[in-house]
Amino acid sequence: MAFLLSFLGAVWKAPTGRFSLVLLALFLVAAILGPLVAPHDPMLRNYGPDHKLLRLAGPSWDHWLGTTLMGRDIASQMLHGARPALLVGGLTAFGTVAIGMNIGLVAGYFGGRTDDVLMRITDMFLGLPFLPFIIIVLSLTGRSLTTIVVAMTLVMWRSTARVIRAQVLSLREMPFVAAARITGASDLAIVYREIAPNVLPLALVNAAFALAWAIITEASIGFLGFGDPNSITWGSILYDAYASQTMYRAPWWVVPPGIAIMVLVSAVYFVGRAYEEVLNPRLRGI
Amino acid sequence: MRVEVRGLARHYALGAGLAARLWGERPRSLRAVDGVSFDLAAGEVLGLVGESGCGKSTTGRLLVGLEEPSAGSIRMGGEDAAALRRRDRRAYHRGVQMVFQDPYGSLNPYLTIAEIVARPQVYQGHARGPDLDARVRAALEQAGLTPAGHYLGRHPHQISGGQRQRVCIARAIVLDPAVLVADEPISMLDVSIKWGIIRLLKRLVAERSISLLYITHDLATVAAICDRIAIMYLGRIVEIGPVGEVLAAPRHPYTAALVSAIPIATPGARRPAPAIRGAIPDAADIPPGCRFAPRCPRATDVCLKADPAMTGTLPWQAACHHPRPGGAA
Predict the structure, then answer these.
(1) CA atoms within 13 A on the CB side of B250
(2) A256 lies in which domain range?
(3) Per-residue pLDDT tens over the stretch B154-211
(4) B106 has a chain A CB within 8 A of its CB
(5) How far is CA B116 from the centre of its chain?
(6) What residues of chain B, 122 to 151, have a C-beta less than 8 Å from chain A?
(7) Per residue in B309-328, pLDDT tens?
(8) Ranges assigned E (strand) in B217-293
(9) Who among A174, A184, A197 is closest to B93 (CB)?
(10) CATH number for domain B3-248, candidates 1.10.10.10, 3.40.50.300, 3.40.1110.10, 2.30.120.10
């Protein structure tokens, strides 16, 4: 908890970091409250006063961002889409760092045979093509947000593991590790109580980049039509607009999800970047 | 506690290349420590002096159990150290602690001073609580960081180098060890701070009758803290004896060369310097006979063939075929 506060404090110091944190907070509010404050049911087909379906109606007081080809309210769909975006991104980032950090810590600290086995497994995963792997997993196991998270985590932990391992390789030679060993610390205590706090900042930067990447990927999967059919995501909104071949006639349909994805990913990326700058003075351009 | 070291060795296997193996060469080994023997009594300070790469730090690491000996034995209070570690690793470490050379790398940057000094007790299985906190404070104040409360919440980067080394000493003494290894504890500190650390170590040795192995390459400070001194060259002790006598009239030509290199604070003053040629040989390729012979101004044929044994009566011994006459030998 204290660490999270110091993380936020460090990000807050940089102007871009502060701006991004505020943006992220807004997205978080939308994710939590969005479905409650949405003016319409996102799947409801809306009819005009003349009892005709409101196909591709432009933005109006009643429908802030207009309607889809099926007369559904886009603003409400957007508000419903914030939650899966952040949920999928957050869970994937968590899973990625949890697996990658542990593999990296164990491989880097113990070295030798352990390192060889773990790193060859990592190499195997590094050989997997990113999006095709996820799509195949989804088509084999069924399309749901859970399987998307699992599939993305499976192909994303690999780079975190390598980065953390490299850091641990140098940390384990530090005298403070020797000092812990000669006071009777077990290997487990050295790894998780002495070394882990030192790689946690690096892991957090990786988590931020994984979060951004996972949001983009989830949107891509939705856009390609492999998303969870039971939930409304920004990617699936784009897919619907594309499939209905009305992207040029109804820009209000495609622009909002595009911008939302871009702004959210940039905000997450800049948070990671701001923290990285605090960690690494060379990036400060001094 | 009495420490008895006999024939202690640490060899590292060097992998021979494929070509070398095809030529039938045996895999070589680097003999970092190669037959070191000494005693260390309770409340005594033994200075272990030598050039970089002579094996003095490895000797210290063998003592605290960071390395396993390839041969020889270490006895702590009459019991074999390796057996003690096998039986109860924690108890062994409780008794033998170390202060490292680098006060920057030996403190975990993400912990507070309070956590750093508390950790040894936590690793020993002590419950967190007021007792533990009290021992942390006591150790910090013993190490000269008063008032302790001023330092508890700080991180290592917020205090000076000398203060960091005092934190390292507090961490080493919080378990109340009987044996302490100090590996060049002052070499990375400012001159103004060095003497404070030396006085602190001397006081701790006197108050707690700690056996201190003081590893250094700096002969100038050795006399200030050590009772006895052991000169190491290429993995072996070449001369051991009371610090005053050895420095005043060294028997081994290598010791004489080291002593002549101590700076004198008088401008223009020079010591008669015995010629010592070349550089320290590769520890993976130790010359036959006396290890120092290729560089020694007194070397004769016998030096190149026969490895000299330690001669002289305790407490002062040297391993040389042609010891200098200075002492009472």
Answers:
(1) 22
(2) 82-284
(3) 989 889 999 999 999 999 999 999 999 999 999 888 888 899 999 999 999 999 999 9
(4) yes
(5) 23
(6) 123-124
(7) 888 888 899 999 988 876 44
(8) 228-233, 236-242
(9) A184
(10) 3.40.50.300
